[in-house]
Amino acid sequence: MSLQFIVVDDDISVRKIIQNIVEQAELGKVVADCDNGLTAEKTILELKPDIVLVDLLMPGQDGVTLIKKLHDKTSASFIMISESNNQKMITQAYENGIEFFIHKPVNVIEIVAVVNRVQESRRLKQIISMISQTTAQYSGQSVPSGQGFEISKKPKIYKAFSDMGIIGESGAKNIYQMAQIIDKLVHSPEENYQLHEVYQQLSSVINIDVKTIEQRVRRSITKALQNLANLGVDDYHNEKFQLYSTALFDFKEVRQEMNFIHGKSQYHGKINVKKFIEGLLFLAEE
Hints:
The structure is a single chain. The protein is α/β, with parallel strands linked by helices. It has 2 domains: about 5-120, 3-Layer(aba) Sandwich (Rossmann fold), CATH 3.40.50; about 140-285, no CATH class. It has 13 helices and 5 strands. The chain has a 5-stranded parallel beta sheet with strand order 2-1-3-4-5, sandwiched between helices. Helix 8 crosses helix 9 (about 195-205). The longest helix is centred in the middle third of the chain and has 30 residues, at about 110-135. The two termini are about 20 Å apart.
């Protein structure tokens, strides 16, 4: 199904440029464009687009306020576009739910790359949601437990480790072992699982205490985040950066780590172990 877009910008030339890029690159269809945040709010709720490209600074209602008001009312993904370099405002935009920030003037390569990453992120969320819904439907029935995991998924998971520079980390092996456990859980009658239960289960199998496993895992994922952020600083359009920064991490945390590297923030980006491992499993399914 073709993606539906809404473009929100007070500059008509920018709206037309983005529409041309979206449609000529066959990314989807622009179903509406708006020149202010107030009109956009009503249009987005009415048309329910997949992706909204929205300007940061607009008359009537700015882009951050628009996204903040719509965050819990729509499943749309928001991409912010602006010529502003105000780091505080950009950070605020990420905190309120944007997927990516694109600096003006917009260009074909960046629009296409970002939209593709957002689409991939949306697919990941849909897959994880479908897994949760599917496991919730089973009530004691036997479900296949991921036969052939070693053959089908191990090479892809370890390739991801290699791409992110953590294949030699002691925690990488523990992450892989946790992925095996979680893969079985999401194909079992269990409706949900808690991360501490996975740590405990792994601890009982490999005879290493939970705290040590958790420290190893978090250290390895943190290193992966740092390596990706450095990759993004050097080359924002790098394929590995574009893939893993959205599939395995909350992108605003990757941006935060990039800001730390640039010296623009004193805080590192944060990691989410569950998202990281579920993201690995998703990538391994493809």
